[in-house]
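Q: What would this chain look like folded?
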Amino acid sequence: MAKKRPQTKSKQPQLKDGEIPVVGAREPCPCGSGRRYKACHGRSAAHAVTELVQRPFEGLPGEGDWIALRELVPAATVELKLREDLPEGVPSVTLATVLPMAWPALRRDDGSVLIGLQNDTASGDISRDLADTLQRALTAEPGTPVQGRRAPADGPRLQDLLDPQGAFEPVVHSGFEFWVPDAENATPEVAASLERANAAAIATVKLSGVDAAYWCETPDKNHLRWVMPYAEEQLLDALARLHAAGQSGLGEGTRLVGSFRAHGLTVPVWDLPSGVGAEDVEKPAAEFAERLAAALATDAPLTADERRARGGLTNRQVTLS
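A: My prediction, written as structure tokens:
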């Protein structure tokens, strides 16, 4: 048997990203390693672009509301404040859940910019894709939409462009009239489009007493969906403690039924009787927040009943992103 040759790992030549010219995937990597570009520096470049960012809105004011508007709320807008002054001719930048024709962004005739949040994105980093769309919208011709594209891997993220001290205050709408400056005098085609969109929207209200909690109305029952900023395992333990103690509800006839996972945070969901409106759960939600804070501060091991409650909650989780 031939003697095995000792395996040695040659040191791969190093190049800075800016020094690597664009070459074909099957061509030799310009770093001099002797390997094809796709198996060398091309692999890390592709990975950097497609790697999923689990919490794309982390570090932004109102992270929970960003997630709610991305996944749960049909019609809402938020005025955005940038770190830098707006370019001349751009009076405002507004984030919207959805835009007409699912456009990623729109520069209106008056120069104002609308950015759509619920669009598909080309890479694994929603924040980077939205930042790229925002930058292109700021320089687009007035009266034109901005098309989607894959953002450059080294491009800025929303966290780089938006004012970290700027308030994030969603305004929830009953319909999509914010699409057009003068909905009452819209053309028949636009009016018909608005009517179809409004018919599909679920009535939604943002609670005022707690953060990132949204009531919504459906034909059979109402719901409260609440994006919470806590680590998932810690939150599930706390919810299990309350559930086992019979303290996880929001009043008579309400029930904690499970949760969503969305963009790195957990979104508990309650079923509410059809007669329970948003104003009816304001006080119960505030009281629940106090009970939850106490449960989160407890580090004792879960009891058998609490473990069973936790298992039930875990089994009723749905991942949205």
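The chain has eight helices and twelve strands.
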